[in-house]
UniProtKB/TrEMBL annotation:
Coiled coil: none
Pathway: Amino-acid degradation; L-phenylalanine degradation; acetoacetate and fumarate from L-phenylalanine: step 4/6
GO MF terms, alphabetically ordered: homogentisate 1,2-dioxygenase activity; metal ion binding
Name listed for the protein in its UniProt record: homogentisate 1,2-dioxygenase
EC number, as in UniProt: 1.13.11.5
Gene3D superfamilies: Jelly Rolls
UniProt keyword annotations, A-Z: Dioxygenase, Iron, Metal-binding, Oxidoreductase, Phenylalanine catabolism, Tyrosine catabolism
GO biological process: L-phenylalanine catabolic process; L-tyrosine catabolic process
Lineage, uppermost ranks: Eukaryota, Sar, Stramenopiles, Bigyra, Labyrinthulomycetes
InterPro entries (UniProt xref): HgmA_C, HgmA_N, Homogentis_dOase, RmlC-like_jellyroll, RmlC_Cupin_sf
Gene Ontology CC terms: cytoplasm
């Protein structure tokens, strides 16, 4: 039945582990053809359908595709027509969306979640565009969204022909039904539904909020580890792909229809089907949806001095044609040990060639106390200055208030960043939002002008870390001797 996903116990949802693996799964034993992909007659009268994530002639190491064995071929649907539904894509009443570039530092408070008694809002209805760059018709660029929702999608499916979707729930657990199976995704987890995969979202409660990144270019992959070695950051075996699951209900001769939405070239279309699109009984391949628990991230950090570049916190990346530069990086700032001596430990002041959009899943960000809250977000665009607020700088730059001779464990929050090489064109909704803090720049207004060319650095500080440590040890020995 179509209600099966909502009624299933979370412990009954099963997954296969690995990233980039070629998986096999069947919800009905014997549904996978033996020894070939498209036999003359498939087991149980199923249809064989290939879903290609890359061109046929892409190098084999980068080639992605899956074979789906389904009760109905996907092509069985009505004509696709422009949809009244907007949000993720333009509705039929929109001729053009207004976007503008803006170099200002921006911060937004969380969007409130409407009460379901006031208005039922599904995942698709609650999506709001923050900004975009590039053109999905050229398969180049990306878009950033947030969402609020209080109701599940019922007899609805979504297909995004424009790119991959990375979903970051901040409040409320979701169940994502895909053609490949079902994923339960809660705050502290993410999921990726790749281009062309049909899915629907059901929620376990009525208060749901989160963020979403769409890439028009390529697909997400694990970042190269370089000198880190063979292990670290997001381990491949911690990614989970659902096992095959299909809706047993068949309304092909019934009266109730499914509505299928498709985002294509930035516009929303819809069609109808007389059966559930989630009718895949078995599949094999390496083009699949997946989820990942951010709490399993194997974090790297400095154990001597200085705050490293945030690229060491990259979970997933989508490379551009320029080596070492990303269409998009998904980066997190998780609980971790801070052991850097003689160092300003929070993130430093920065002007970046990349664009940084940040969100807060829970807690506080270590560079800004108070203003950056769970469900909120900030944007620091290409070459726009940013950094710790005045209160954070004042505290962490004072040795009397923060002792950097001892390690400290930061467990105050979980933030993330969508970082891109592109400049974002911002939507009217984002630029004029009632939740935007138009006084955001004031958090740096009280930075003191403390430069004094006549001042001498305190004797206990040394330019050389080793000399500073030796000096500290010597001073400690002298104090111990006097005692």
């Amino acid at each position: 039945m179509t209600e099966t996903m909502e009624k299933m116990d979370a412990n009954d949802l099963k997954y296969q582990s690995g990233f980039g693996n070629t998986f096999e799964s069947e919800a009905l034993e014997g549904a996978l053809p033996a020894g070939q992909n498209n036999p003359q007659e498939c087991p149980f009268g199923l249809y064989a359908e290939q879903l290609s994530g890359t061109a046929f002639t892409r190098p084999r190491s980068e080639n992605t595709r899956s074979w789906l064995y389904r009760a109905h071929p996907s092509v069985q649907h009505s004509e696709m027509v422009p949809s009244a539904l907007g949000g993720l894509g333009m509705s039929k009443t929109e001729t053009k969306r207004a976007y503008e570039v803006d170099p200002n530092q921006m911060r937004w408070q969380p969007r409130p979640v409407p009460k379901i008694s006031e208005k039922a809002i599904t995942f698709l209805e609650g999506i709001e565009v923050v900004g975009k760059s590039g053109d999905p018709t050229q398969k180049h660029g990306l878009a950033i969204y947030n969402y609020v929702a209080n109701a599940s999608m019922v007899r609805q499916s979504m297909t995004n022909a424009d790119g991959d979707l990375l979903i970051v729930p901040q409040m409320g657990a979701m169940r994502v039904q895909t053609e490949f199976g079902i994923m339960r995704v809660e705050p502290n987890e993410i999921c990726v539904v790749q281009r062309g995969m049909r899915f629907r979202v059901a929620f376990e409660g009525e208060e749901n909020r989160g963020y979403m990144l769409e890439i028009f270019s390529g697909h997400f992959r694990l970042p190269d580890l370089g000198p880190i070695g063979a292990n670290g950051l997001a381990n491949p075996w911690d990614f989970q792909t659902p096992v095959a699951h299909y809706d047993a209900e068949d309304d092909s001769n019934g009266s109730e229809e499914w509505t299928g939405y498709t985002k294509f070239g930035g516009r929303m279309f819809e069609m109808s089907q007389r059966f559930s699109p989630f009718n895949v009984v078995a599949y094999r391949g390496n083009y699949v949806p997946y989820k990942y628990d951010l709490r399993k991230f194997n974090c790297m950090n400095s154990v001597t001095y200085d705050h490293p570049d945030p690229s060491i916190y990259t979970v997933l990346t989508c490379p551009s044609s320029e080596p070492g530069t990303a269409v998009a990086d998904f980066v997190i700032f998780p609980p971790r040990w801070m052991a850097m001596e003689h160092t300003f430990r929070p993130p430093w002041f920065h002007r970046n060639t990349m664009t940084e959009y940040m969100g807060m899943i829970w807690g506080e960000y270590d560079a800004k106390k108070g203003g950056f809250v769970p469900g909120g977000s900030s944007l620091h665009s290409c070459m726009s200055p940013h950094g710790p607020d005045a209160a954070t700088f004042e505290r962490f730059s004072d040795p009397a208030k923060v002792d950097t001779t001892s390690p400290a464990f930061f467990d105050g929050g979980l933030a993330f960043m969508f970082e891109t090489t592109f400049m974002l064109e911002l939507s009217d909704a984002a630029r004029t939002s009632p939740h935007r803090e138009f006084t955001y720049q004031q958090c740096w207004a009280d930075m003191p002008a403390s430069f004094d060319p006549k001042a001498k650095p305190p004797a206990s500080r040394a330019d050389n870390l080793l000399a500073w440590r030796a000096s500290r040890a010597s001073n400690g020995a002298k104090r111990q001797k006097r005692a």
